[in-house]
Inverse folding.
């Protein structure tokens, strides 16, 4: 084993040890589309293709459909969330401001103030019933890459 | 729970490897700049360190609510107003009294002293052009609107907007008109009048015709916009940390000598088990957000509610981004439109301050509670429960905070961390308005 490989093995382990508890759970569901809690809807979220800077306010789109794929219009969607490992909520109160196409909603006021694991929780109410869905997002700093 | 197990297993492995490493008989320094058995930075750590570096600071975004912020003439007027003590109740207090250029644009006092004594620490005005919210509680949403608050605060400047508008007319009419156009006639405006003043001043304000009230408000708002243009020109220059960060990103061995072994250890703590970088992120070392970290209130009998008491104020402020004196379109006022209100976490939450030049700016916290950085670090190591609200750092009670890893540092790590914080000191530079 060379000095260099020994050193890098050592540092990799140390980082794992140090960062272990702040690392999100390994089995975290990072999908951007899945069924809501009680399977009443299929919900897809679409963040911007280019990751926004930390603290930059931006918009997402939310696509809402029934389990068989029909778009769900005129839903009321409220947003909550935060960082489960830090004990704080979102730095803004994002809001669904309008339905831009059948079953596609504009979610404005999204902002992440730090890197790490964030939860985005949507509470959905529509004629088809009420349900909840949570999305996990690992926010990275574009400046750190 | 599994966190702790994983941690000890990893530590054991690291220890085993370290023994093997030592037995192999090689020097601890691989590339000549490591000391005291330090391991090299991982690519991830290099990325984190780079993200804190001043050269990653994007140009300040334009404030759409202030159309003149990039005008040199506005900045020049603002600079004059900033330093002019006539804009106070008794002619003794200027902005520079508590934001002294030779004291890091602060005053070195636990709580600010204007014509009276305040309840919070004066904040630095350098590099604040990127903030979404101003003051420790964020009760203002722009640099220009922020500048208006102390002018009428009864313990800060203690004056009133009618008097200030007349002063501008008397002493700065030419400069004012060069930036904002013709100054309104202030005929019939009482010498002292303001909706926020003494009862006499409030009565005088109410007796003014609406048009005259608007004229006074306009001149007052424009004072703020000029001061903001000046303040926006104040920036932090490069620190030793920034040179070190650049050196490790560029694999420049000699540049890495900018920091001592102790300071490098402190940086390791800062981005590692100290968890400082969680909130003190980005090139200004702040997430610009509000947190309750259990900092003890100055007066435990009357604890400061911080952000919780500020949200309604900024929403109702006529000088906010959505108000009649803002130059922004409503859709540009995103922070105000999507403001968090009514969240219990806002109780006794205060804004994360920048750590730029922090070692030069004691005392610390929102009411100068701690005279030294050692005490600040000790506070985070203790993470006491909050007197008001709930500390994000308080040890778990089976609630959502249980997953947060406590900040546990050895005394040596705490000392190293304080040493590192001093590497964030650099010059304050005045840049041309952009």
């Amino acid at each position: 084993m060379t000095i260099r490989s020994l050193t890098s093995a050592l540092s990799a382990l140390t980082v794992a040890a140090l960062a272990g508890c702040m690392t999100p759970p390994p089995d975290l569901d990072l999908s951007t589309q899945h069924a809501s809690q009680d399977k009443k809807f299929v919900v897809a979220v679409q963040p911007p293709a280019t990751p926004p800077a930390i603290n930059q306010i931006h918009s997402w789109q939310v696509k809402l459909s029934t389990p068989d794929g029909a778009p769900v219009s005129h839903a009321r969607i409220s947003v909550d969330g935060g960082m489960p490992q830090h004990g704080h909520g979102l730095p803004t109160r994002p809001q669904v401001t309008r339905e831009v196409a059948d079953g596609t909603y504009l979610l404005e006021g999204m902002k992440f103030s730090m890197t790490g694991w964030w939860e985005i929780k949507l509470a959905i109410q529509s004629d088809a019933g009420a349900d909840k869905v949570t999305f996990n997002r690992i926010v990275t700093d574009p400046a750190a890459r | 729970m599994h966190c702790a197990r994983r941690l000890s297993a990893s530590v054991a492995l690291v220890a085993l490897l370290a023994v093997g490493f030592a037995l192999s008989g090689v020097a601890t320094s691989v590339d000549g700049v490591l000391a005291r058995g330090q391991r090299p930075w991982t690519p991830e750590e290099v990325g984190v360190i780079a993200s804190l570096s001043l050269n990653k600071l994007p140009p300040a975004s334009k404030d759409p609510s202030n159309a003149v912020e990039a005008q040199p003439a506005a900045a020049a007027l603002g600079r004059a107003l900033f330093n002019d003590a006539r804009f106070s109740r008794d002619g003794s207090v200027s902005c520079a009294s508590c934001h002294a250029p030779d004291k890091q644009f602060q005053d070195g006092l636990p709580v600010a002293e204007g014509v009276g004594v305040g309840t919070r620490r004066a904040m630095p005005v350098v590099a604040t052009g990127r903030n979404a919210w101003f003051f420790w509680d964020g009760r203002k949403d722009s640099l220009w609107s922020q500048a208006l608050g102390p002018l009428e605060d009864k313990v800060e400047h203690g004056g009133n907007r009618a008097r200030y508008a007349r002063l501008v007319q008397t002493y700065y009419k030419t400069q004012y008109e060069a930036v904002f156009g013709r100054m309104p006639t202030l005929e019939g405006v009482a010498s002292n009048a303001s909706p926020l003043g003494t009862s006499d001043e409030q009565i005088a304000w109410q007796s003014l015709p609406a048009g005259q009230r608007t004229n006074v408000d306009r001149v007052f708002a424009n004072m703020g916009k000029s001061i903001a243009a000046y303040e926006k020109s104040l920036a932090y220059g490069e620190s030793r940390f920034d040179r070190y960060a650049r050196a490790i990103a560029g694999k420049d061995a000699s540049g890495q000598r900018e920091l001592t072994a102790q300071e490098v250890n402190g940086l390791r703590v800062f981005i590692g088990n100290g968890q400082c970088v969680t909130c003190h992120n980005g090139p200004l070392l702040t997430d610009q957000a509000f947190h309750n970290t259990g900092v003890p209130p100055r007066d435990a009998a009357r604890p400061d509610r911080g952000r919780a008491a500020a949200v309604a104020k900024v929403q109702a402020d006529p000088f906010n981004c959505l108000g009649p004196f803002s130059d922004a379109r409503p859709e540009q006022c995103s922070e105000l439109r999507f403001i968090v209100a009514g969240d219990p976490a806002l109780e006794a939450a205060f804004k994360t301050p920048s750590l730029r030049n922090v070692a030069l700016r004691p005392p610390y916290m929102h009411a100068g509670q701690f005279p030294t950085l050692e005490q600040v670090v000790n506070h985070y190591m203790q993470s006491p429960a909050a007197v008001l609200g709930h500390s994000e750092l308080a040890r778990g009670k089976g609630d959502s905070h249980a997953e947060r890893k406590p900040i546990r540092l050895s005394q040596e790590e705490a000392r190293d961390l304080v040493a590192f914080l001093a590497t964030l000191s650099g010059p304050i530079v005045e840049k041309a308005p952009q």
